């Protein structure tokens, strides 16, 4: 009989790789590992005080999910962010979320949405990391509650990385640090439509919210020129690389 025990990671190593995965991903999303920068196993092992083996496993998983690209004998490149990425993220959100809101009407736990909305309405202090994190977490959970209430578990699993990408764009454009006002959106009409079981109204309100955030990010990106708008030739090259 083939003994595969030597080829399987120990439980402690697996747990450490899970921890490393979450820590590295969190730093990518928050742009503490900035788009377009390169990292090595040794640098990250030192950064997180973890062994190289769990770091290597985490980086492989992150590369599989397109957060990183392996650079032979040079480490990994953190995936850059371009204007095209923002467009694709919000195009996909506009396909998913309005339909999910329609399906969630009359089914979602409205009291939870109201609690999360209160946190969102309180806003945040630009540049205050703890304040920003509280706001983003409430906003994330608000949208997740609606998507999950649509009743499609696969939709919920596919939405999480999409929201991670949204947060990374928010951090990268600096919109969180500049001004809280463009991120404000009145959730009350959406909540009332969901409470009343009015799927059409819930779909319309969700579409407007996603478009509102997309416009705010695009306007900031155009003002700061932080997101490149590559040529068709560059885009084809990037498609081949990622």
* Broad CATH class of the largest domain: Mainly Alpha
Number of spatially distinct domains: 2
Widest β-sheet, arrangement of strands: 1-3-2
Q: In one word, what is the shape?
A: globular
- CATH-defined fold name of the largest domain: Four Helix Bundle (Hemerythrin (Met), subunit A)
Q: Can you count the helices?
A: 11
Distance between the termini: 40 Å
Secondary-structure-derived class: mainly alpha
For the report, how would you describe the main beta sheet?
3 strands, antiparallel
Number of strands: 3
What is the ordering of alpha helices and beta strands?
HEHHEEHHHHHHHH
Instruction: Indicate the percent of residues in helices.
Output: 55-70%
In the CATH hierarchy, the architecture of the largest domain is: Up-down Bundle
Mean pLDDT across all amino acids: 88
At the fourth level of CATH, the homologous superfamily of the largest domain is: GntR ligand-binding domain-like
Measured by DSSP, the beta-strand proportion falls in: under 5%
Radius of gyration (CA) equals: 20 Å
Unreliable runs, pLDDT <50, ≥5 residues?
A: 1-8, 231-235
Characterise this structure.
- The chain is mainly alpha-helical and 242 residues long.
- It has two domains: 5-78, Winged helix-like DNA-binding domain superfamily/Winged helix DNA-binding domain (Arc Repressor Mutant, subunit A, Orthogonal Bundle), CATH 1.10.10.10; 83-224, Four Helix Bundle (Hemerythrin (Met), subunit A), CATH 1.20.120.530.
- Helix content is 69%, strand content 4%.
- The protein has helices at residues 11-29, 41-48, 52-64, 83-104, 110-122, 129-149, 153-173, 175-178, 188-196, 199-224, 232-241, and strands at residues 38-39, 68-71, 75-78.
- The model is unreliable at 1-8 and 231-235 (pLDDT under 50).
């Amino acid at each position: 009989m083939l003994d595969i025990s030597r080829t399987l990671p120990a439980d402690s190593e697996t747990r450490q790789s899970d921890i490393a995965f979450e820590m590295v991903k969190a730093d990518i999303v928050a742009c503490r590992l900035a788009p377009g920068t390169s990292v090595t196993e040794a640098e990250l092992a030192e950064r997180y005080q973890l062994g190289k083996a769990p770091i290597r496993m985490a980086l492989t998983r992150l590369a599989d999910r397109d957060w990183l690209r392996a650079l032979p004998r040079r480490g990994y490149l953190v995936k850059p962010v371009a204007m095209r990425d923002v467009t694709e993220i919000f195009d996909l959100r506009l396909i998913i979320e309005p339909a999910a809101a329609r399906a969630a009407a009359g089914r979602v736990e409205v009291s939870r949405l109201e609690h999360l909305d209160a946190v969102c309405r309180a806003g945040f202090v630009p540049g205050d990391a703890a304040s920003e994190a509280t706001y983003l977490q409430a906003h994330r959970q608000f949208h997740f509650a609606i998507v999950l209430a649509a009743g499609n578990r696969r939709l919920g699993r596919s939405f999480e990385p999409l929201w991670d990408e949204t947060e990374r764009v928010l951090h990268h454009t600096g919109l969180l640090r500049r001004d809280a006002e463009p991120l404000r959106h009145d959730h009350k009409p959406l909540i009332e439509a969901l409470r009343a079981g009015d799927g059409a109204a819930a779909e319309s309100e969700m579409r407007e919210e996603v478009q509102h955030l997309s416009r705010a990010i695009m306007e900031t990106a155009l003002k700061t020129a932080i997101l490149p708008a590559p040529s068709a030739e560059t885009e084809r090259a990037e498609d081949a690389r990622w």
